[in-house]
Every structure is written in C-alpha cells, then in structure tokens.
Design goal:
The protein is α/β, with parallel strands linked by helices. The protein is built from 16 helices and 15 strands. Strand 8, helix 9 and strand 9 form a beta-alpha-beta unit. Bound molecules: D-serine.
Length: 413
C-alpha cells in the first residue's frame, strides 16, 4: 500500500488487520479461497473508473480501445477454459448471472424447478426470501432421506407434474457430483431449459477433475472467487444461440458499465487456471476434502451423504450435542473459520443449524496436504469437545498459529 495510509489511514488499518486475520487463521469456508496477488493487482487497477456501457466493438462511450481488448481477451480465455460456445463476463455476481438467465428466456411468473435451499440449494434458486421467488413460480426438489443424494426419479416426477420451463441443477452445500446428463434428459423430456449453477465447483470443472456441465446445459453460471481462485464476480456460459438475448438482458436490461476491474481479474484467473499447477492443486483440493470427511468420521461425527466427491464436507454435529452456531463461534475463537450450515432435515433454525460446512480450497492453496488436514481435524475436534476449557483452547490456538506460520498464504516479498 503506497497511497492509502496517507489518504485514509483508517481504511488502510482495517485492510492491514484483515490481511493479518487471513494470514493467521485457517479458512475452511467452502465458498472462499485465497486468490494470488496478481488478481488483486488487476482488481485494483486503473480499470476501476472507466465508463464502458455495451460490449466489445459496440460501446456507448468513447475511449474503449483497451477495454475492448481486455474484455475480448477475457471472453476468449473463458470460452477456451470451459470449452463453451459463448461467455458473458459482465454479471457483477452469481445472483446477477442467475437473474440474467431467468429474465433472458423466461416470462415473469414462469415455473422453475430447483433444489431446496435447506437441502443444499442457493438463495437465488427461488428461496422465499429471494427476489427470484417473487418473479417466478418455483418448486423445489430435495434429497433422498436415506442417501442424502439427489433422487433423479423424484426430480423427473416433479418435472412431469410441475411442467417447469426451466430446471436448475447446482448447489452451495451439496458434497456430491451431479449427473448433468440425467438432468438434461429430464429437462428435455418436459421441454425445459437446463441451467447449471456451478459457482462452488468452477475451479474443479476448469481443471477437469470433476465432470463439466457445459456439454449438457443450455446455460451455466458461476462465480470466480471460490474454487477458481479469482476475485469476486459472475460469469455466464451458454450456447451461441442465446448470446444475443443474454447480452441484451445484462446490458441495457439490468446493468450499466460492467466492473472492468473485476473483468480484468477474471481474465487473470482464467489464465492461471490453464496452467499445469492449477490442475494439481484442484486434485489436492479433492483429496483434502476426502481427508476431512474421513478424519471427522473416525472421530465419531456423522458426515452428510457419507462422504464427499468435491471440495466440501457437511458435518452433522448432533451426536456431539453441539449446534452449528456454537461450533462456528468456538472454532473462530481459536482461529479456525467455518460456517454453520443446515443439514438435510435439520431440526434447528437456519441461523442455529445442526451442522458445519467445511471446505478444503483455502488450506490447499496454502500448500497443506492430508497430514495437515489430520492435524486440523484433531484441533477442531478438541476445540468442540473441550470448548469450556480455556487452557485447552489456548493450546489449540497455538497449534493453529504454528500451522499458519508454516504455511503462509502470502509469502513476504
Ligand atoms: N453461496 C454462498 C455460500 O455458499 O456460502 C456464498 O456465495
């Protein structure tokens, strides 16, 4: 930081404190990751102030020569990385991307079938608290009560009775792979569009370590700051035939100038995701998530669906007599950052919950492997079991600090 401490010491101090928090805590939030400094340089670049409504070659402001170059480069990288016909990188967020899809091909009041929020879906997939549910008529499918996995027969049945115009696959706390081919078959059988929201798993898909929805879906949306290791922002991938409709819905329909600084950061993360080290890291992300699941199972916790196929694990805390809320708070007090999460059929309220969601991307980016994951599980279990013993909690905090020191997020330069 060169200029900020002088212009605004208060904000500079808060930023420094946040850097220290990130460096000195273990981030296990499944929706987060640690982006490289190059992403932040792009996000904080001179592209923060340009007005550039429109698309490359079709702008409503002058002076867009480099903006056009940047957006075209980013689009071509996204299309190459995900083998997509077309990419639109202007949505400010994942929710904006989903809204853009709905408003491109549906009419207000149309029916949409999606996964229930309480079984792992996302707010923007028609949760009653989301604006999406006020514009469209949603019905939700849940998970099979025994396997805690998607029951494709139930989805098919719901599609046949509800006759949606769109089906959404994708979730924010579903630890299993989704059979996109099956979802596509179901959507086709009722003449519905298929939208896949792959926000959480975009990095794993980019690296080719789990199946891609792109060949099967009409539309794919995602954010760039989770497994993909970029900065904030939304992306839409679609078949060429929808390009015009989607472009118009975003601009002039719902947004003005895109956040060009975020667009620059998107370009950077797509480039980095094409490099060989990225695939290795995403493989490690899967291995570390599996190690978390196995570690907690050995300690007597119930793992929702019995394990994981991706970067996240849902742990049911009921056998330990602990709520998600209490676990989240105690763990944060020793420097371990997770989020409380509803589990399927959760008897607790959504802000209390019976579970925690654990993500492996953050610690994997720090260079940790299965040995460190086993240590973290030990530290977490001790914290939750001995949460009233301040001496033990002090020892755990030391253990967390040692791990953070040994595996820095950002090496000092
Ligand atoms: N969807 C939220 C989550 O999974 O935590 C954040 O994007």
């Amino acid at each position: 930081m060169h200029y900020l401490p002088n212009d605004d010491p208060e904000v500079a101090k808060i930023i420094q404190q946040e850097e220290a928090r990130i460096e000195n805590t273990l981030d296990l939030i499944a929706a987060e990751n640690h982006a490289p400094r190059s992403v932040f340089e792009a996000q904080g670049s001179i592209f923060s102030t340009k007005a550039a409504e429109g698309y490359p070659g079709r702008r409503f402001h002058a002076g867009c020569v480099h903006v056009d170059e940047l957006e075209s480069l980013a689009i071509s990288r996204a299309e190459r990385l995900f083998h997509a016909d077309h990419a639109n990188l202007q949505p400010h967020s994942g929710v904006s991307a989903n809204l853009a899809i709905y408003f491109s091909v549906l009419d207000v009041g149309d029916r949409i079938l999606s996964m229930k929020l309480s079984h792992g879906g996302h707010l923007s997939h028609g949760d009653p608290s989301s604006i999406t549910s006020k514009c469209f008529h949603f019905r939700h499918y849940g998970l099979d009560a025994r396997t805690e996995r998607i029951d494709y027969d139930e989805v098919r049945e719901a599609a046949e009775t509800f006759r949606p115009r769109m089906i959404i696959a994708g979730a924010s706390s579903y630890p299993r792979l989704i059979d996109y081919e099956k979802m596509s078959d179901i959507a086709k059988s009722v003449s519905a569009y298929l939208l896949v929201d792959m926000a959480h798993i975009a990095g794993l898909v980019a690296a080719g370590v789990i199946p891609s929805p792109v060949p099967h879906a009409d539309f794919v949306t995602f954010t760039t700051y989770k497994t993909l290791k970029g900065g904030r922002g939304g992306v839409i991938l679609c078949k060429k035939e929808y390009e015009r409709k989607i472009s118009k819905t975003i601009f002039p329909g719902a947004q003005g100038t895109p956040s060009l600084n975020l667009l620059a950061a998107k370009a950077v993360c797509f480039k980095l995701a094409m490099e060989p080290g990225f695939k290795e890291e995403q493989i490690k992300t899967l291995e570390n998530a599996a190690a978390f699941a196995a570690g907690f199972e050995r300690k007597g916790y119930r793992i929702v669906s019995g394990g994981t196929d991706n970067h996240l694990v849902l742990v049911d805390l009921r056998s330990k007599g602990l709520t998600g809320d209490a676990a989240e708070k105690t763990l944060e007090s020793v420097g371990i950052v997770v989020n409380r999460n509803v589990i399927p059929g959760d008897p607790e309220k959504p802000d209390v919950t019976s579970g925690i969601r654990i993500g492996s991307p953050g610690v994997t980016t720090r260079g940790m492997g299965e040995v460190e994951v086993a240590q973290i599980v030990e530290l977490m279990d001790t914290t939750m079991a001995d949460r009233k013993d301040s001496h033990i909690l002090e020892q755990v905090s030391q253990g967390v600090a040692d791990l953070c020191r040994k595996f820095p997020v950002y090496k000092k330069t």
